[in-house]
Amino acid sequence: MSQKNETTVLVLALLITLGLVGGGVWWLMKRSGVNLGGLVNNKSQPLGQSNVKTFSSVQNVPSGVFNYGGSTTWVSIRKAVDPAIQKVWPQFRLRYVDPDRAAPSSQTGIRMLLDNQLSFAQSSVAIADEAYQQARQRGFTLNEIPVAIDGIAIAVNPSLNVKGLTVNQFNDIYAGKITNWSQVGGPNLKITPYGKKDRDSGAYIKFMPTTTEALRQVAANPGGIYYTSAPLVVSQCHVKPLLVGRNLNELVPPYKTPFVPLEQCPQQRNQVNTEVFLSGQYPLSRRLSVVVKQNGQIDQQAGEAYARLLLSAQGQELITKAGFVSIR
Fold this sequence. Notes:
Number of domains: 3
Number of helices: 10
Radius of gyration: 26 Å
Strand content: 15-25%
Order of helices and strands: HEHEHEHEEHEEHEHEEHEHHE
């Protein structure tokens, strides 16, 4: 064999060896969870599908009519996301269902899910232990799949001269311990807390059937107060969102500053300050979840598909446009 041929063979052998070694190292690093582009990514991806960009890329979307319902907090998400889903997946027909003889809420949605009236539910609160027990008694389990982060905003009458409340003051108002605005630096005016029966209790609370009616009452009552999802409060023209803090020296607005005077509404509206919800600076925040009935049937497939759609990049973008914080 000539020296030239020997050199060629040696070079080829070296390249093959380097390729095998390099490939082995890459395979081992991949198996170990090392991200070759930088830091190790230890985040678990919901439902086994990561980095899905569009609705059309989501897998295992079933065909049929699927009832769903639940929290009124989800109204703006439903309006933003569901029509877009239907355009891409017309066979995945979503049908919103209100409860009989009750106002829609997270609790009524979960109750309807347990009673087989819904395929999946939309919730803005954690599932109660009692609901988990009822599900087990009926032969299935419930699974909460978080898809967004929301902040709670406190609505008061625009004429009320109170800058903000601490979390403790807010809790004491709804516990009946603080009954006059003068106790929190405001005028000598009786506090009228409005609430919902499925989340509040107390003879001093005026219960409202819907968030719309509660906000209407606050707009007409100088001493009124109500709390609900920030996107439902911040953009309103007739109520004022209060600053909230863990203490009076750290009051945080649920809206982007500077505050747009209500006289300029609806031509200009205040926007939700999603950054402080994401950072945890704003103390009243919560997760929005799709509640899935894990029974191995098509209802489970529908609920998980809906959650995957919302967790896609396209779904998260629409959730952000609706005023909530992306969870991914």
